[in-house]
Amino acid sequence: MLAVIEGIEHCARARYEICTDGITSRNLLEPHDADEPGTIIWNPTLRSELERGCDGDPARPVVRDPVASLLHEMVHAVDDCEGRDASAHELEAVRIENIYRRAAGLCQRTAYGDTPLAAETVKLCSPGHCECSSAAGASAGQPMPPATTQRQGPAATGETPADLAGDGPRAHGDPRH
Predict the structure, then answer these.
(1) Between the CA of residue 123 and those of 81, 109, 120, 147, 149, what are the distances in Å?
(2) Residue 62: which domain range?
(3) Chain centroid to CA 40
(4) Residue 137 in domain
(5) Residue 1 carries which DSSP code?
């Protein structure tokens, strides 16, 4: 996470702003252009469902977390700064987001939309200790992270252009972002 912050801080090509928006239905990065800074649009109250299957329980949703979402968008800002198409690196942004999620005891994402992460990038951890083994290879007796209470935010409306990088489409193939 420190590398992400330093990547933005030391970006020579562009500068980035974080704008909070309590009604946006999706966190996203608007890449910089020649005259304008890049903008991370972040809704710190957004708690919508990203996917089903928290810690192997198909009934538990994985929901947006404000810090995880902001980190995800900051990864995109570093991609943009380094000249990469941020929207082409969503799985890497989710992988880095999952590092924070593990450390915070949150459910990890296993996909970006319909595209799954490689199984070895989702790790099982218990409070205060991460075994650093993949979820797919964990033994049945290994402790699982505790359930995390995450509240749902208000119903989201509106659409976001597909070419903007963001923290992911809503669950179950909903085309709205």
Answers:
(1) 29, 10, 7, 16, 20
(2) 2-117+149-166
(3) 13
(4) no
(5) -
- Rounded CA gap, 65 and 52, in Å? 15
DSSP assignment of 13-58 equals: S--EEEEE-TT-SS-EEE---SSS-EEEEE-TT---EEEEEETTEE
In this structure, is residue 92 part of a structural domain?
yes
* Tens digit of each residue's pLDDT (9 = 90 or more) over 27-75: 999 999 988 999 999 999 999 999 999 988 999 999 999 999 999 999 9
**Span 68-95, pLDDT tens digits:** 999 999 999 999 999 999 999 999 999 9
Residue with tokens 């990890």: 108
Q: Distance between CA atoms of 110 and 95, rounded to whole angstroms? A: 9
Task: Establish if 162 belongs to a structural domain.
Answer: yes
Residue 125's φ and ψ, nearest 5 degrees, are: -140, 150
What is the DSSP code string of 116-175?
A: EPPGGGSEEEETTEEEEEEGGG--TTSPPPPP------SPP-----TTSEES-PPSTT-S
